[in-house]
What does this fold into?
Amino acid sequence: MAKYLLLKHYRGAPTPVNDVPMDRWTPEEVAAHVQYMEDFAARLEGTGEFVDGQALSPEGTWVRSDGEGRPPVTDGPFAETKDLIAGWMVIDVDTYERALELAGELSAAPGAGGEPIHEWLEVRPLLGAAPTITE
Amino acid sequence: MTPVDEALLRAVVPTVIGVLGRRGADFAAAEDAVQDALVEAVRVWPDDPPRDPRGWLVAVAWRRYLDAVRADTSRRRREERVEDEPEPGPAATADDTLQLYFLCAHPSLTPASAVALTLRAVGGLTTRQVAQAYLVPEATMAQRISRAKRTVSGARFDRPGDVATVLRVLYLVFNEGYSGDVDLAAEAIRLTRQLAAAVDHEEVAGLLALMLLHHARRPARTRPDGSLVPLAEQDRGRWDTRLIAEGVDLLQGALARDRLGEFQAQAAIAALHADARTAEETDWVQIAEWYDELVRLTGSPVARLNRAVAVGEADGPRAGLAALAELDPSLPRYAAVAAYLHERDGDPVTAARLYAEAARSAPNLAERDHLTRRAARLNTERRG
It folds into this structure.
């Protein structure tokens, strides 16, 4: 088994096929989209491949240390930041092919007009623990 | 095989901790021993149910406690004292339970620690159940609980505590709702009932009334797909009239004592909503007056924000927007309230923009989806 992170981007991914912002959909289209996501996660729980799924607020802050004894410095959001993570799902699957297959399904969530969004999702392998036997 | 009555089992946990405490066990050790006894009970009782569940738990927990003390070499000198079989001592009383509430809501604890400790020591939940309810790993929750116990380890059982701190903890538990397998709203109601039985206090009654009145609306609050239904659109036939009646009774008894507090004021607002057979019949003028009381009692920005909604319903959206203009726009849910008032004021363009903005800063998915749908509806209607 190997774990993969399926990353959904608010910004920074290539433009999806069906590119209409959510608040321009009909309420029924929003409901169908949410239902699709929930059904997808529930099905993966059923197959034992679901690890975690979280959505992130688009609002964020940049923070860095300003040296010992001083409060941290905050800044941002930076306008030139190209990428904005919307959320993630962590799956635990047998093969890389299976991870791609699932990401493809998730990308086909319905959007405006009930048509699949075909949004680009990023699939990133999680770095696991080193194996005990390496030879 | 008889299934274990988990509610009964959990209900006696505080008194069993109390008995061990009176026999000389410190709180942290007593609480650990009772957790062990609970786990043992779940294992043994189905095949061999005890005649006296509480007596059984006391006996097993006390044995566990002695074993732990014996195993703890650093406490060797204290062994001689505990080797003597203790006097039975007076039976545990409601006072024990009350002291436990105070201890678990000790002012030195962070809210998260107080909540976790209360659920385990007063509620009798296992660490796993508490972890599940708060969606954190079990190891994390175990650490949170043991740190909390270390923090209060110096606190004695016999000091009167502050009811207000306990109420805030129970309010937090109730508000966490029912995301996991553990129904925290129901658990908060059970713990508040137990507290109301142990202490005669108008704000305890007020909080219990508030919980019951909110819990009564639960069946109508979400659609089968999990989406939120706003109060105005709820099917009031699905509200639980029995819970409403109980909540209103409790509230009237509390208000009659003429010592108003924030939970009574919140319960009064919930009762006024429950009184209206349709959304149109809601007595918004009275609700706005109760929000004035709540603002006076707490100064809370959230109360001021809700007051703006009530004023908007009582005196029209312009009045609501004027009340809103006095508040800090960075308040959580400010944009959602502004959107609603602009929608009522017949400005769908501004309302849709604000709903979309509110969705972007929503604190949870259910609210985000709800606000997105409202923006979507206004935008769809405009397009015709």
